[in-house]
Amino acid sequence: MGHREDLLDGAKRCLLEKGFARTTARDIVRESGANLASIGYHYGSKDALLAEAYVALVEEQAERFDWDAGAAGTAPGSAERVRAVLRTVVDSLHRPDSIWHLSIEIIAMGDRLPEIRRNLAHAQREGGRGLASLLLGLPEDEIGDELTDSVGGLAMVLLTGVIAQHSLDPALTPTGDQIADGLFRLVARALPAEGR
């Protein structure tokens, strides 16, 4: 493994241990075994490195989602699939290896880091594309912009809201089943009104 990969792995460990704001460049160097100048050389800045490390952690978490949702044995696009995915997302907040608390910290810091914010916004949109693929049971390359912005956008809004609620009070965070029930009830009431 080269310095670039060592730095990324070290930054991921620092994020999990200290969070975004409390991680220093020296922490990353100490954790990775690389030298301080290599951060600027490979990533441009400590913040850019931490942003890339965060995206990598989210991608690793998403891979676990695919497996969990697939193991649930639900039909793609079904109410059972929606319920299973929401249950998996909410349950992941309670895992000891959960990385979602970092999302709130990064959202709060976004105004101070506009370049990082743009990169993370793009990553979030692609995360929505992945969730739409998972929910609908379509290959990700078949999820166009409309599905990304509608189904994926809704999934990301729900995910971000649940993460925020869990950060405020884990005991009051709705379960995946409660969120699904609320969503289905809302849709059931709205659909007859639209048909008139």
From TrEMBL:
<dbReference type="InterPro" id="IPR050109">
    <property type="entry name" value="HTH-type_TetR-like_transc_reg"/>
</dbReference>
<dbReference type="Pfam" id="PF00440">
    <property type="entry name" value="TetR_N"/>
</dbReference>
<protein>
    <submittedName>
        <fullName>TetR/AcrR family transcriptional regulator</fullName>
    </submittedName>
</protein>
<keyword id="KW-0238">DNA-binding</keyword>
<dbReference type="InterPro" id="IPR036271">
    <property type="entry name" value="Tet_transcr_reg_TetR-rel_C_sf"/>
</dbReference>
<feature type="DNA-binding region" description="H-T-H motif">
    <location>
        <begin position="24"/>
        <end position="43"/>
    </location>
</feature>
<dbReference type="InterPro" id="IPR001647">
    <property type="entry name" value="HTH_TetR"/>
</dbReference>
<feature type="domain" description="HTH tetR-type">
    <location>
        <begin position="1"/>
        <end position="61"/>
    </location>
</feature>
<dbReference type="InterPro" id="IPR009057">
    <property type="entry name" value="Homeodomain-like_sf"/>
</dbReference>
